[in-house]
Design brief:
One of its GO terms (biological process) is intracellular calcium ion homeostasis. By secondary structure, this protein is an all-alpha fold. It is 79% helix and 3% strand. It has a single domain (2-317), classed as A middle domain of Talin 1. It is globular, with a radius of gyration of 19 Å. The two termini are 18 Å apart.
Length: 318
């Protein structure tokens, strides 16, 4: 098991570094062709921080590890909302824009509700499964989200800056290619060794996906949000998390389902309830204290809920 643990850690490191290189190369390439920072942040960076989840899930889905597929996305989204916003909100109270309060947070809640309805097959009397058709519907929702992002760039423009880009086109392309290769290699190492560890310890795929894999693939979001909070750039901190959670459901689950239909274990409903409740709590928190912000005491509540819930899940497995 020691070898599997070391390979799992190596896989997470390769996965995260691959995402970093992919974002760096793609961002530099986009800037070279005068794509705005806002578009880069809401597309390339959001995709980059969700890329580990996407790669892990595609590999897990192709091998029919359904509980890892669901545990990774739900675990990552819960970690994003409770753990990462909890930590960043304690570092510095998170003030957000009005559009985040009234549009992006409700859209994130809508994504959770849609996942709940599709996964439990409320519209079809059949075994609970996220089918390829469901995946295509989620892709449609992802397309609508990207259209919203496009419209947002027309009304919320960043100031134009003159910047000399020292990175050559060859280096940009090289970073993108190596980053993608790192994602694929790291993803395979994570999935295969997580399953081996679960088998050896007698743990379920869910608990491995929800804890080790989910937290590991959420490290890009954690790093981005903590740095943003330290720099007091709270819009990036909150926007990164909300955007990533939307990406994970509308893009990552969609891709997984199209690769192979995902059998839904109803035990995951409790995680969906927690995610929906946390998103609703975040929305309500925007109206306490007179400003649209997440105060330190509210962030502390989120963090404590995450620690308590994770401890409960682990205790059930022991």
């Amino acid at each position: 098991m020691l070898v599997n643990s070391l390979l799992l850690i190596l896989g997470l490191a390769v996965l995260i570094k691959g995402a970093d290189w992919l974002v760096s190369g793609a961002s530099a390439l986009a800037k070279k062709y005068h794509v705005s920072d806002l578009v880069i942040g809401l597309t390339i960076v959001a995709f980059g921080t969700s890329a580990p989840e996407l790669v892990v899930n595609v590999i897990a889905s192709s091998q029919n590890f359904n509980d890892i597929v669901l545990g990774n996305v739900l675990g990552s989204n819960i970690a994003n909302l409770f753990l990462i916003l909890g930590i960043t909100g304690i570092i510095y109270p998170l003030v957000v824009q009005s559009s985040t309060t009234w549009k992006e947070i409700p859209l994130s809640l809508l994504a959770v509700v849609i996942l709940f309805l599709l996964a439990n097959n409320f519209f079809i009397l059949d075994n609970p499964v996220i089918s390829r058709l469901d995946g295509l519907f989620l892709f449609l929702m992802f397309g609508l989200f990207m259209f919203y992002v496009y419209r947002l760039t027309k009304t919320d423009k960043a100031p134009v800056e003159v910047e000399v880009n020292a990175m050559s086109s060859f280096k940009m392309i090289t970073l993108i290619v190596i980053g993608l290769a790192g994602l694929i290699l790291g993803g395979r190492l994570v999935v295969n060794n997580a399953v081996e560890i679960a088998t050896i310890l007698g743990l379920s795929e869910k608990i491995i996906g929800f804890t080790i894999v989910a937290i590991g693939t959420s490290l890009p979001e954690l790093a981005t949000s903590v740095v943003a909070a330290l720099k007091k750039n709270t819009n990036i901190a909150v926007g990164n998390i909300i955007g990533s959670n939307i990406f994970n459901i509308f893009l990552v689950i969609a891709t997984s389902a199209v690769v192979s239909p995902v059998t839904f274990n109803p035990v995951f409903n409790i995680d969906i309830y927690l995610l929906a409740g946390g998103t609703l709590f975040l929305f309500i928190a925007m109206f306490t204290g007179g400003k649209k912000k997440l105060d330190r005491w509210e962030a502390t509540i989120l963090l404590l809920i995450y620690l308590g819930y994770t401890a409960m899940l682990v205790a059930k497995e022991i």
